[in-house]
């Protein structure tokens, strides 16, 4: 096998149907390296989008319910102690 054939066979674009990755590790590594900047950019946008919604819902909750110190304490003062609850309906 010539050097040209070996090099070209290492960069095959065949995709493994089970892993959804390139069959050859070198090809997969080069693809991931080549698309790293785009992937990081998309991740930043997605995290900003999700955190914006999280903060928006937090603000609407505070606007409707008001801010109380008990909202940030754990466990909540009105929470039930499940250790004291009966395990079955007939158990007292």
Keywords:
disordered N terminus; 92 residues; single chain; 2 strands
What would you note in describing this structure?
The chain has a domain at 3-65. Helix content is 52%, strand content 4%. It contains three helices and two strands; from the N terminus they run αββαα. It has helices spanning 3-10, 25-34, 36-65; strands at 15-16, 21-22. A two-stranded antiparallel sheet has the order 1-2.
Helix fraction bin: 40-55%
Can you count the beta strands?
A: 2
Low-pLDDT sequence parts? 1-5
Q: Terminal Cα separation, in Å?
A: 81 Å
CA radius of gyration: 27 Å
Give a short summary of the structure.
This protein has a domain at 3-65. The protein contains 3 helices and 2 strands, in the order αββαα. The protein has helices spanning 3-10, 25-34, 36-65, and strands spanning 15-16, 21-22.
Layout of helices and strands, plus pairs?
Elements: H1 3-10, E1 15-16, E2 21-22, H2 25-34, H3 36-65
Antiparallel strand pairs: 1-2
